[in-house]
Queue: 2 jobs
Job 1
Amino acid sequence: MVVLAKIISRSVFETSPNNSMESVTTMNNKTIYAASGDKNIKPVRRSNAVIKTGMVLAQEVIHDGKLLCSKNTVLTQDRIDYLKSWGVETVKVYIQDTAAPSKHELIVPAPVNERVDFRSFEKEYSNKINVVKGQLIDICSGAEASVDRLYKVTEDIMGKLEHKNDIFNYIRFMKQSDEATFGHCINVSLLCNLFGHWVNMKEDEIVLLTVAGILHDIGKTKIPEQILCKRGRLTEEEFTIMKTHTSVGYDLLRSMNIQEDIKLSALMHHEKIDGSGYPMGAVGSGINKFACIVSICDIYDAMTADRCYRGRLSPFYVIKTFETQSYGELNTEYLLTFLQNIAYTFLNSMVKLNDGRECEVVFINKQHLSRPIVKHGNDLIDLLLHKELDILEVI
Ligand SMILES: [Fe+2]
Ligand SMILES: [Fe+2]
């Protein structure tokens, strides 16, 4: 059903009987036909038709010849305030009607944690935390690592997704607590699996890369709990111990009947192409290519996860950080592939800016991936031109 919605006054209009699907809600004390001037609409008192956030415009809002909001825009408080600031007093909106399908369902994507495939992803992911934990502990106790069994963990989780790139969106919603290390291993593995497809790896290489992601931090199982879970900054001595998880991990896997690329990923995923990494300070092409990819996925997951000293960072902030800090340290070709794919994953997503506005990402700037063009109402905001604005979070 369509109504004209009023923001402050309780006076509301309703359509004539021959157009019974429409009525009116207004924004201020005066009531006007700001949307259409539809002569069929007659004033009727209806106290329940005051505008609310979440309503959807059934008709564009034009003021002095300027298009302020297009049809099917979801009304947020910002948008309502924006329309009021232009003196708009009435808008035409859809309201819930049992006889007609809700327009809300057609144009408002469900929140991530209410989506059906997210629910099954979440369930599978939670089950697999314990499976991974069990397998890694067994390997640490000397059991042979099974590539097939480890790969199945990631494959089963991936199988719950309708679109593989939703991984970026979904892993942000997985709560990490006591099992943060194992959740991190799963996340890196899922990202590695996606990465393998982006760079057109052969299927058997994707399997190895995926398992390399699961096993990359296996050495952390030997790091003392008080260092691994310490809140706040590690001392120099603690950091020296923490860094040993790379060589400890390699030693754990060294004698196992698994591919060298997996072992080298555990050893080299903190190496940097400029030689500033650890444990060996390897340079450029001396770093295993699987380890280069694991490294990028590892940093991405660490940055986007909640930490005790800060909340999770928005993917666009992470892209910016990669752009400004990581070229020269990480494999350039892989990094570019990764950042482009992240950025395009969030095209058409809703984001919150640091001024509180909720906008849609409508254009990715290939030269400046962290500064897309976003849309607020009918205003396009080029974040490259508005340095004062930042994307705080994807909502
Ligand atoms: Fe690590
Ligand atoms: Fe890691």
Note: The CA atoms of residues 159 and 212 lie 19 Å apart.
Job 2
Amino acid sequence: MAQSPKTNKREQAPNQRATRTRKTANARGYNHEWRRARLLWLQACPVCVECGWIDVPAKMVVDHILPHRGSRLLFWNRSNWQTMCKRCHNKKTGRGE
Ligand SMILES: [Zn+2]
């Protein structure tokens, strides 16, 4: 379990935390347009590139191969997208990539 200490700290104000998380995600480009695009992507490419796991879109992640860091170009460039299961994606983000 790789829980960051930050997460525990914010448990004092759960409502505030939820709003904040959603706002941040939207600010980074994860809006309804993204959700639709990722769903189409995962329906077409449901296989995890790391371990070959196949699951429903809700359990899979569209990963940016190169971290987009706010770049719309990298964010929307589908040659920068790959399908990962949540497990492999957590491993990748846990490595700080
Ligand atoms: Zn996987």
Note: The two ends are 18 Å apart (CA to CA).
